[in-house]
Design goal:
This protein is α+β, with helices and mostly antiparallel strands and 117 residues long. It has one domain. 42% of the residues lie in helices and 14% in strands. It contains five helices and four strands; from the N terminus they run βαααβββαα. The strands form two sheets. A two-stranded parallel ribbon has the order 1-2. It has a two-stranded antiparallel sheet with strand order 3-4. β3 (77-79) and β4 (86-88) form a beta hairpin. Residues 112-117 have low confidence and may be disordered.
């Protein structure tokens, strides 16, 4: 069985901090519209859409589970302060989203993750 896992994006604009010049650019992008599109397309193709809590997906090490703000060295790089694991921050977060989706929907398979990688 197939599935798509995304972070729950409600309130994302309120949770982020941008400079004034960046705010205008971000407010023009509709997260609600993206989710509606994904829901429509996933239903059309028989693919389940699972939303997960975004809390700490970018700060938690997918290898050892250690969660710390300092794990995000830069916007792009992730380095676990506990086990030393290093990867691209977005890739690490994606693996954490997949792990959270497994809890909500155990049918999310290892194969699906390997296809995404």
């Amino acid at each position: 069985s197939r599935g798509i896992a995304i972070e729950e994006l409600k309130g994302i604009r309120e949770r982020t901090r941008f400079r004034k010049s960046q705010r205008a650019r971000m407010s023009g992008w509709s997260f609600f519209q993206l989710r509606q599109f994904l829901e429509y397309k996933s239903r059309l193709n028989g693919v389940r859409l699972v939303t997960v809590d975004p809390r700490n997906t970018s700060r938690t090490c997918h290898e050892c589970g250690h969660c710390e703000k300092a794990n995000r060295r830069t916007q792009e790089q992730f380095e676990c302060q506990s086990c030393g694991h290093r990867s691209l921050a977005d890739f690490n977060a994606a693996l954490n989203i997949r792990a959270k989706a497994k809890v909500n929907w155990p049918m999310v398979s290892e194969r699906a993750a390997s296809v995404a990688a």
